[in-house]
Write the structure tokens for this entry.
Amino acid sequence: MVRIDAHAHLAADHPESIAFLRALNGSVLNVCVAKAPGDPDKSGCPLYRRLAHLYPDRLAWCTTFPPWGLDQPGVVDRLLKQLATDFADGAVVCKLWKNVGMEVALNDAVP
């Protein structure tokens, strides 16, 4: 039986991590995190993208986009370009940040 963790943040960049997943017959979907403006990029996307290319039998990645500034000019084109690039580079899904509609409103956009 294949075991799939459908929401993880696993920096499986050590050979023992992959050996462990193979022993369990497990796979992981690593989910990128949307970061607030001004935060250092710790979204995980560059790492998760690289790992999915190295271990496509065990690791997949989920892209995302920051929900701030959605009312800014040109943002839709920029986001569509980013998502097209991410999917062309192996992302299998996009996660919309769960707090959209709970905390982030267009009129509260962070500059």
Notes: The chain has one domain: 3-108. Strands lie at 3-8, 26-31, 59-64, 93-95.
